[in-house]
Structure formats: structure tokens, C-alpha cells
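User: I'll paste a sequence; please echo it back and then give the predicted structure.

Assistant: Echoing your sequence first, then the prediction.
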Amino acid sequence: MIRHFLDVDDVNPAELAEVLSLARHPDPPRLLAGRGAALLFEKPSARTRSSMELAVVQLGGHPVTMRNEEVGLDTRETAEDLARTMSAFHALICARVFRHASLERMAAAGAVPVVNLLSEDAHPCQALADILTLEDEFGSLEGRTAAWVGDGNNVCASFVLAAALVGLAVRVATPLGFELAKDVVERAHALGADLSVGSDPAAAVEGADAVYTDVWTSMGQEDEADARRAAFSGFQVDAALMARTSPGAIFLHCLPAHRGEEVAAEVVDGPQSRVWPQAANRLHAQRGLLLWLLERAP
């Protein structure tokens, strides 16, 4: 059976541990030698493209990056036909899309593993890097607590699911109207999550070992920027908020960061920040994921 990675709960706790172990491999096997990986970008990217291209190269493969003007997802060619064609050339299909359903359709039609590089519902590769960063900092995450402050978006959703798989408690604080999706909360609880959701940033970060945020206005939401700034007033992660955390607490951000909006410069550029190791771990986490999928490919 072909394994895909469309969201974090496509793997179980033991499998996630295997992926993260492979991410730390000092000399990964070149399982992609002489093979290609299709990297499809319906939405543009900087970190995701750079980290995934290099992950493929470090496994001996050749990344072929395509923008949507080249493939025309569901305009020039259906998602199903694109997956069938790319499966004829490549060992993997990795796609960053607007609609999560596009990934599901490619996975159903193609003959190789499909990896979600971001959709409106999920950002699972980011969550792998997040957990890798937290484990690098703290070791085992059992008994640890992370706080999410801000938009209950796709990054938050995947992080909550990943946390459930590793025994990390999460407190989510979002403005009213920007809550974590109910189905994500239900999925996390089904995994045994220690998860609380609310709208008070101070309560969420009290005694936490890590504080995580994301931009208030994501790509494609630019027309909502002014309304979102008003709605997210009081949700900036600043020094006063970080002072409520536990000793040794760290700050995470998936980037790009907007200093003065969701995070104060003194925090993202300060000694508690781990955003740059977190960004670097995108490469390692994705390389481990590709290894894990390739080892299980028919």
C-alpha cells in the first residue's frame, strides 16, 4: 500500500517517532539516486521550496519544481491526470495547494507517495519541524506544555495533531471567530490530546514551555488585513506575555514574521527565540519524511 502524508495523523505515534529519528540520520541513504521528485507549487514559497529541494538532493534525487502557471491545476489539467503523469516520471509528488481536496484527489489517482507541502487545512511538514525543534530543546515532550497564540489556522491544526502524537499538552488562545476548527479538536482528542482552547493569551501561556504564533494575515487573505489587525488586538506575543511562561521557555514561529504585529521584535530576535533552528529543521524533518515514505513505497 502506498503511504501518503497529507496531514500529521496519517502516521501513528510510533511512525512519527521513526520519521523524526530518520530526520536526525547523519548520513542518509541516497534512496532517490537517479530518480526525480515532482514539487508542485500552486502557491509560492521560499522556505518550503528551498528545504524540500535540498531534501531531495541530499537523498540523491533531482527535484523538478513547477509553478501553477506551468501545470494549471484543474484548469489546464485535472489533479488526477497530473498525478498520473507525474507518477510516470517521479518517485514522489509533493504539492503546495489552495484546496486540500486537490491533494486527496492526487493521492487517490497517482501511483507514488503524495506529500502535503501546505493546504488551507494543514501544514504537516511544518509540524514535523516544530516537534523536532521542541525535542532538540527538551528531549521527551511528555509532561511539557506548548501555547498557541493567534489564528487557529492550518499551521495550528497540524501542530495540535502532532502534539497529540508525542504527548505534548497544548493550550490554544484565539480571537473569537478565528478558533481552531471543531473537526481538528475532535481528531486531536481521538488521539488522546491534552488540549484546551480559549481566547485568553495570558492564560494559555501561563507556565508553558513554548509559545508558538503565526502571522495574523496569511497568503490569500490580504484583503482582510485591516479587519484582522483589529480582531487580533491583544494577541501579540511580547516580553510581558513571555514573562508568564516557565523558566527556560522558548518561542516558535513558522515564518515569515511580522514584527510589531503577531510578535514583538524583542521576542522573535531575543534569547528565547528558536525560530531559526526551527526553520533549519524543515530540511531535516522533510528529508526524514521522504526516507520513511520511500522505504515503504511498493
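The CA atoms of residues 50 and 283 lie 8 Å apart. The longest strand covers residues 36-41.
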